[in-house]
Amino acid sequence: MLDAAESVLAAVRAGVSPASDGYVLCDDAGAVALLLPCAPSQGSRRALASARCEPMLDAAGKRLAELLTARRLRSSVRQLAQSERLQHALFAIADMAGSDHDMPTMLRGLHEIVGGLMYAENFYIALFDSESDSLRFLYFVDTVDDEDPVLDAPMPMSELMYGCTWYLVRDAKALMGPVDGLRRQVSGPLHQHGASSKDWLGVPMMRHGQVRGVVVVQSYGQEDCYSDADRALLGFVAEHILTALERKQDQAQLERRVAERTRQLAETNQILQEQVRERERSEQVQTSLYKIAALANVEDEAARFYRHIHLAVGELINARNFYIALLSADGQQIEFPYFVDDKDSARPPRPLGRGVSEYVIRTGRPVLVDPARARELMEAGEIEASPVVGTISLYWLGVPLLDADKVIGVIAVQSYSEDLAYDERDAELLTFVSYQIANSLQRRNSAEALRRLNAELEQRVQVRTRELREQIAVREQVEAQLKHQVMHDPLTGLPNRLYLRDRIERAIAGLRRNPERCYALLYLDVDRFKLFNDSLGHLAGDEVLREVSRRLGDCIREPDVVARLSGDEFAVLLEDVPLPKVACKVAQRIQDALSQPMHVAGRDLQTSASIGIAIGDARYTSTDQLLHDADVALYRAKSAGRQRFVLFDDSLQRQALDVLGVEHELRNALVRREFEPYFQPLVDLADGAVIGYEALVRWRHPVRGVLPPGEFLPVAEDSGLLEAIDWSMYRMACEAGVALVGEGQFMTINISPRHFQNPQFDVHLLKLAREAGFDPARLRIEVTESTLLGDPDAVAAILERLREACVDAALDDFGTGYSSLTYVQRFPLKMIKIDRSFVEPLGRGLSQRSSAIVAAILALAKSLGLDVVAEGIETEAQRQALQKMGCVHGQGFLFGRPEPASHWPR
Ligand code: C2E
Ligand code: CA
Ligand code: CA
Question: pTM for the full model?
Answer without folding.
Answer: 0.40
